[in-house]
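Changelog-adjacent note: as of this version, every example in the card shows the full chain rather than a window. The one below runs 256 residues end to end.
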Amino acid sequence: MNIITLISDFGSRNYNVASLKGTLLTHSPQCQIIDITHDINNFDIVEAAFVLENSFSSFPVKTINIVTVNCYYAQKMRFLVLLRNGYYFIAPDNGILSLIADDFSEDALVYLEYGNSGVGMFEIISRIVSKIINSVEFSEIGLPVDTLSRKISFKPVISNDTIRATVLFTDKFGNAVVNVKRDVFEKTGKGRPFSLYYSPKDTLTRIHKKYNDVSFGDEVCFFNSAGYLEIAVYMGDASEMLGLSKDSPVQIIFEG
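Full-length structure tokens:
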């Protein structure tokens, strides 16, 4: 059975998710559809890329990952179809895929236009999926991609003693995920003591292993299962209690 994952900013209050699923099943009734999330903030391709990057590899190879976020980004619109390391990705050409990979030279990549084609977006996606499932030659799925939209990923600014970072994402519990991965932290810090400033006066000075390494209501930072630095409040909402939200600045200073 072919697995299809869905990421969108459609929410759950209207018919869009149901319509997409129904169209997919009409073309490919044998597929299994998995919802990753439909609660991406409106038009937020950075959040969508973050969720995609940290979820797709949990599924079996050959899974088809569909992202429908900010799909109406230009007058002439198109979907990219990417085959990378055995996984398929279908996403609008609005920069989402460039946020999960810097180089596509070794990958298979084609596109199909929609919007002005007279064929609905969900129909286009479903036709792509059907071709993949029916083992159509990849080059016949769409047209070759010569250029694609690229967005600059939000990477931390690093010097010898300092990492200037930002909050990438806040989850349902208010935990703040920072755009610093463990390897970057360790390479920069070299085991030195540090002060993590999440506000001009508030700091953390220790990396813990889990939420409940601190007392109820206390701040804690650790590297989460995806390898990103996370700032949280044990049994509390860090976003609300610490004033952290997406794009909030975080500075880590290592002792010289």
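Structural remarks: The mean pLDDT is 92.
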